[in-house]
Write a structure and sequence with these properties.
By secondary structure, the protein is of the alpha/beta class. It has four helices and eight strands, in the order H-E-H-E-E-H-E-H-E-E-E-E.
Length: 171
Amino acid sequence: MNSLNRLKFVMKEISFELSSEVKNKIKETLLHHGINEIGGIIIGRKEAEEYFKIIDVSISIEEKSLSFYRFFKSARKSQKLLNKHFKNKTGYYIGEWHSHPSFSLNPSITDAATMFGIVRNSKMNINFCLLLIVKLMDDELLYKAFFFHKDLDNFITLKEKALDTSANNIE
């Protein structure tokens, strides 16, 4: 990607939507696992050029490998969820998610290196992926999402797409 195209790409605003079902699934998981990090893969769809909809997530539960600063993903559970959505044509792999119960919602150096490793691994054949970082604060689910692309040197912070409720407004 030449520098002019890279600049145009970076200047675009990329947005995402997190379904209420996914929010509830993640919140229940975080309540159960407390101060330990937990995560999995993101299943979703690219709804428009700069808009992604997250429709499901896997929950990697390897109790013996959980700690307050890392976790190990269960490939078997993630693959099972991925196969289900692929078979039903409802979504596909668009990234990874995990919690930062004791840290900020920004990617750590390890997080960024892992995500760039995914998009730059020629064996995986993935041009982009999202990273969703979540935490609970006073029982409220907080989250931020980031976009990683194989041709970019830095990640892009995504904007959450505001739900259009204008059709429901009564004047």
